[in-house]
């Protein structure tokens, strides 16, 4: 094969632009050319992560590490005096750095120091010859909140990954989620400049064999999070199991994102927190699980809002439709007046009412199928599912957090298989009417559901980054999406949601009317066969001009009105007013105390 033929074969695998460059810039096929790849020396600096008010949350900064000697035994009291630490602080810092409690004396330990502490060690280096002080650049967290949002660099988390394997915690197989640091890794990292010269036998450059890669500095990310609201929200959940997601329904920007139990974001990558990581890995509360994105749960009674919207759209009910609170159909845990219309049904969260609402949808038999009620039920369930999916359910919303779960909505085929027959009846699937059974929603989907109702039928995909460098968010977060439900039917839900928060409603104790804020909300209590029921709540405020939508889920929290609604109301008040009214201070303190103790 001639040299010309070889050259043409090689260029055939290049892009059209690359082929043109190669043929034009290296026409003499009698010369042997060498392809070179030159990486330019300038290394891009990784971008910072800032909150919506430009407070720096994560940055690459100089870090000082003090390596303690393995032998002889260390005088920790004297070392503490050198560093300015008391005996208790010294013992705790060393204990936190050990990967397990039974680590032998002299186990190698590294401690992070401040610049001032490092300077003291340098000044006393002759008196402490066995201490080793090193410095290097590493990701540094300037905040103690938002761990599940901020995430971590995979390259700096290898010690954690290896530690997790040793604990055989199979349920943590999704640890490599990385949060914002992982999702936007390439943008934060930037890229080095790379040249692709084509060099002849004399070492002279004869054009390029591929387009050069331009140097790109790492871009800063401005989050949608309000770090002060995030910190406050974490105080309300603390060591409890659950989540709270608050977003601006007008934009889809996430204002607060809490997965509890909480932990500090530096824990995963800090070289002196191996002991803290070990406790996280062993904790039954599964604090490392990113609950709002990765865990889907039955939503409970908050799902009645969607069922009502679908029934209104299909003409199965109207806002004035009433039903008996028939306890023979399904148990109703609230004693309340007759639900003579949709507003009353929502206000009292009447289970029999919504049993009959969805029954009207599933049991409808058109004239064309009057002889085949089985086919009618299958068609009706498929139609119900189609409308419900338009809320972004049973699929990922596309939020900028890795490993988002899709949730689940049952299909007719699912029930055919689960029931072992195609002749199943509504009575065997009625749990859908109260948000139980086979339905599973994530926290992000729950918050987005509240935003959709607040907007009367549309939403922007929830997201955590409002701007990249000097630009805006990723394009997909500026695309407005619509449900299949007409806006008038969403408007019909709001009076009932407002009534939930008023006297006699299921969450009247969480009203903010005393400070002029009208909340539209819905409580949920999710049955749990393995322990106490789960508490749920979704809502938005102000009801007539929504600026914040909130979803709360407290595992084993009991009634939604008692555990979830108060948290949502406090977050709304904090965001809209900046402070909590004196009459709720005792209430706030009680919730924060429960959060600290995890019950």
Automatic annotation (TrEMBL):
Gene3D superfamilies: DD-peptidase/beta-lactamase superfamily, Penicillin-binding protein 2a (Domain 2). Pfam families: PBP_dimer, Transpeptidase. The keyword Cell membrane applies. It is found in: Cell membrane; Membrane. Its main location: membrane. It is a single-pass membrane protein. Residues 242-572 form the Penicillin-binding protein transpeptidase domain. Residues 43-204 form the Penicillin-binding protein dimerisation domain. Keywords: Carboxypeptidase, Cell membrane, Cell shape, Cell wall biogenesis/degradation, Hydrolase, Membrane, Peptidoglycan synthesis, Protease, Transmembrane, Transmembrane helix. This is Peptidoglycan glycosyltransferase.
